[in-house]
Design a protein that fits this description.
By secondary structure, the chain is an alpha+beta fold. The chain has 2 domains: 83 residues; 325 residues, Beta Barrel (Porin). It is 19% helix and 51% strand. It contains 3 helices and 20 strands. A 16-stranded antiparallel β-barrel has the order 1-2-3-4-5-6-7-10-11-14-15-16-17-18-19-20. A 4-stranded mixed beta sheet has the order 9-8-12-13, with no helix packed on it. Helix 1 runs antiparallel to helix 2. The two termini are 74 Å apart.
């Protein structure tokens, strides 16, 4: 008999128990009384068995509840361990970069759309070693896609204030190339003349670099020292055409270039810096033909830069001079000096969405067709802190008939991620 049936039997027999306790019991026949007493004893026995079964069922429920609690605790422990594993990793991979799309309209020339993107890769191990790299992917005029390696370095964090860097890195000469050139950071849609390829400012270097910071009370000193392969000299028609300082994995003159930059921040909003490098370089190409054994000559570069931020006003300027000495026995015996400077002011309006910017640049080259003065004006709309729509106009003054003398309108949308 199951528990439910027994419970029903006891409930139906309760009137008989009540009858036994009533006054009419004394008037009943003795045999009937004996029969009722036997039924009462049987019901009492069944009631005891039912109580025992109920106690056992309660115990089983307690055990089941305990098991459920244990399983829940196990799940919670596994979740905690999993969470700890994610917050205590030894390596982290990160993808970032920036992209831009331009519309360029040249005075008395064709207009065109331009697009490029620069993915950046980072892999950090144990907060001690960082690998970082940047690619430059562009659509060329003929529709082909060009891919260049902007930099790739292994950074070893010696301590909180000192880092050793090895590989191809952006040149620490000046400030624009290493910190301001990405399209989503640059406040105008173009680089200042002389800060691009074959200009006055070095682009990158292959070698080793030591970067650090030295606190000085409420002030700070940032510094970078490097040793690298140095630039190459490109000749044309018996004269130096350009200094190529774009980071090479070879050194034909077997003479390294040493340099660096030191920046002083008396207050967080003001930075004053000086940079320079010295070494040797040699002509490695003349009229598109490789040259070997051309004598080495002295190479120097000097840079000065400053920046200041006050409320919504951003002021900055930079000067860079790059030169090579003459070498009488060279196929390009004369030396050359490439020199540029710019001054820039930007103001963000009260709503924080619109920004006006003006920049003046004067680039001097040994070649008249490269020399250029430029006044660039721009209005920017900040879609987000890392996305910007720029409207820029360049008034250019160069040699008549050259592209450096043509004014331009540029519309650019740039995004950093």
């Amino acid at each position: 008999m199951n528990t439910t049936t027994r419970r029903r039997t006891i409930v139906w027999s309760l009137p008989a128990l009540a009858f036994l306790a009533s006054p009419s019991l004394a008037q009943m026949h003795p045999e009937r009384i004996a029969e009722l007493e036997e039924q009462v004893l049987a019901l009492a026995e069944q009631l005891g068995e039912l109580r025992a079964e109920l106690d056992d069922a309660k115990a089983d429920q307690d055990v089941a509840r305990l098991r459920s609690d244990v399983e829940a605790n196990k799940v919670a422990i596994r979740a905690t361990q999993s969470s700890a594993a994610w917050t205590d990793v030894t390596s982290v991979t990160h993808l970032s970069g920036y992209a831009s799309a331009d519309y360029v309209s040249v005075e008395d020339g064709p207009s065109a759309f331009v697009a490029n993107f620069n993915p950046m890769f980072h892999f950090l191990y144990d907060n001690r070693i960082l690998w970082e790299a940047e690619l430059e992917v562009e659509v060329e005029e003929n529709g082909d896609t060009s891919i260049g390696l902007e930099y790739t370095t292994v950074d070893w964090f010696l301590n909180d204030k000192l880092t050793l860097i090895a590989g191809k890195f952006l040149s620490p000469i000046g400030n624009f190339r290493q910190n301001l050139h990405p399209s989503w950071i640059n406040k105008l849609p173009s680089a200042p003349p002389g800060f691009g390829h074959d200009g006055a400012a070095p682009i990158s270097e292959v070698g080793v670099q030591l970067r650090g910071v030295a606190p000085m009370g409420n002030s700070r000193l940032n510094y970078a020292l490097f040793l690298g392969n140095g630039p190459k000299i490109e000749g044309e028609d018996g004269e130096i055409h350009a200094i190529e300082a774009e980071g090479f994995a070879s050194d034909p003159d077997d003479e390294k270039v040493f340099g660096g930059r030191v920046a002083f921040l008396p207050i967080p909003s003001l930075e004053l810096a000086v940079s320079g490098a010295t070494g040797d370089a040699a002509v490695v190409e003349d009229d598109g033909i490789d040259v070997e054994g051309d004598p080495k000559r002295g190479y120097q570069v000097l840079g000065v830069d400053a920046s200041y931020q006050w409320n919504n006003l951003d002021l900055r300027g930079e000067y860079v001079k790059q030169e090579v000495d003459p070498s009488p026995s060279s196929i390009a015996p004369e030396g050359g000096v490439w020199e540029t400077w710019y001054a820039q002011a930007a103001y963000k309006f009260a709503d924080g969405k619109w920004e006006g910017v003006a920049r003046y640049t004067d680039f001097q080259s040994p070649h008249a067709d490269d020399t250029q003065e430029q006044l660039a004006l721009g209005i920017n709309y900040l879609i987000t802190p890392s996305a910007m729509l720029k409207f820029g106009y360049e008034s250019n003054d160069g040699e008549a008939g050259e592209i450096t003398d043509s004014d331009r309108w540029i519309v650019q949308i740039a995004y950093g991620y």
